[in-house]
Amino acid sequence: MTLSGDKLSFVRASPGDADRFAAHEQRVANRLYGPPLDREACACEIADNALYFVEVEGALGATAAWRLRDDGSAYLCHIAVDPDFRRRGVARAAMHFLLEEARNCARIDLVTHPDNAAALALYRSLGFAVESRKENHSGDGEPRVAMLRRKPLATSRLLLRAVTSSDRMDLHRLEQDPEVMRHLNGGRPTPLEPHAGAETEFLMPRGPEVGLWAVVERQTDRLLGWVSLRPEGNVGDLGYRFFREAWGRGFATEAAQAVIADGFLELGLGRITAETMSVNIASRRVMQRLGMRCVRTFIADYPDKLPGSEQGDVEYALLREEWIPG
Ligand SMILES: CC(C)(COP(=O)(O)OP(=O)(O)OC[C@H]1O[C@@H](n2cnc3c(N)ncnc32)[C@H](O)[C@@H]1OP(=O)(O)O)[C@@H](O)C(=O)NCCC(=O)NCCS
């Protein structure tokens, strides 16, 4: 049974709480979380972070902590629920509490064990995407994955928020319209469970993926589609896909303008590129309206020959110094 919010209280730990925290660590430590912190390490954690005891009607249900970095980003250091209080919504409530505290941070990140299915499911449901894998990250010989969640971006009509695991069915539904997929795979329906790989992320994202934003109409709260800016080094690759009902109203341009500004100003990119089939006039119009220049036409060696592929693909690009903020 999920606990209601009024049964939980968040109490900020103070320097005298190291013993209480250390006793909790003994109860939660395991291979996927890590070895228990001793009293001294607990005292340091309390000193360095905003660490909370999550009390369930007075009993210690969990600990949760975060800290603000000098660069303005937030690091969610840990969340650990006592075994007696698991599967009752305590971790989800604690995450909501921490995310609310860190609401002004453009980037929020954390690390977790790649085999920690419970933690991964929770974080994915909140829009955290795996950014990288780190071997022996915590010095315990175990791997960790670094996960990232971005603060939503707003435009006059749109809200761009991190795609979450709950968007999965909608992302798939978007690909079932042959018109939407005409210039991507010829309009074939796609599977709900695609094989993993770079092509999958580009053609069939299922969320959350780094750089993928759900585009929501602010007035109606309706999901209109997605826009992506996938950074690779100094370059961001722009993509977008919208439900047919949302076409023709300038939403793709408006959403792409927001991620381009974010890419140059927040991510520090130097160049943004986008590719489409030469015959995809609507997509090329969006790129032109964004101020991007067509830098090359090329014939790619794709296994699928789509109608119009004999005219090749085009690449558009925009440099940081060419960009005129909207
Ligand atoms: C991971 C952990 C924090 C989850 O705590 P919890 O209070 O049981 O989680 P909640 O009840 O709030 O559930 C939140 C979500 O987590 C996921 N989840 C929780 N337990 C799960 C399990 N056993 N298997 C799969 N998913 C699980 C689900 O997505 C769940 O949402 P849902 O109930 O809507 O499906 C807890 O298992 C724990 O403390 N583990 C040890 C410490 C740890 O590993 N911390 C994470 C370090 S990064």
Instruction: Give a count of the beta strands, DSSP E runs of length 2 or more.
Output: 15
CATH architecture of the largest domain: 3-Layer(aba) Sandwich
Radius of gyration equals 22 Å
Q: How much of the polypeptide forms β-strand, as a percent range?
A: 25-35%
| Bound small molecules, deduplicated | coenzyme A
Low-confidence stretches: none
Tally the helices: what do you get?
A: 9
Structural class: alpha+beta
User: Class of the largest domain, according to the CATH hierarchy?
Assistant: Alpha Beta
Share of helix, binned: 25-40%
The number of domains is 2
**CATH homologous group name of the largest domain:** Gcn5-related N-acetyltransferase (GNAT)
Averaged pLDDT: 95
What is the 3D form?
elongated
Ends: how far apart? 49 Å
SSE order and pairing:
Layout: E1 8-12, H1 18-28, H2 39-48, E2 50-56, E3 59-68, E4 74-81, H3 90-101, E5 107-112, H4 117-125, E6 129-134, E7 144-150, E8 153-154, E9 158-162, H5 168-174, H6 178-185, H7 198-203, E10 212-217, E11 223-232, E12 235-242, H8 251-265, E13 271-277, H9 281-289, E14 293-298, E15 313-319
Parallel strand pairs: 4-5, 12-13
Antiparallel strand pairs: 1-2, 2-3, 3-4, 5-7, 6-7, 8-9, 9-10, 10-11, 11-12, 13-15, 14-15
Helix pairs in contact: 1-2
Properties at a glance:
9 helices; 8-stranded mixed sheet; Aminopeptidase; 7-stranded mixed sheet; alpha+beta; 326 residues; 27% helix; binds coenzyme A
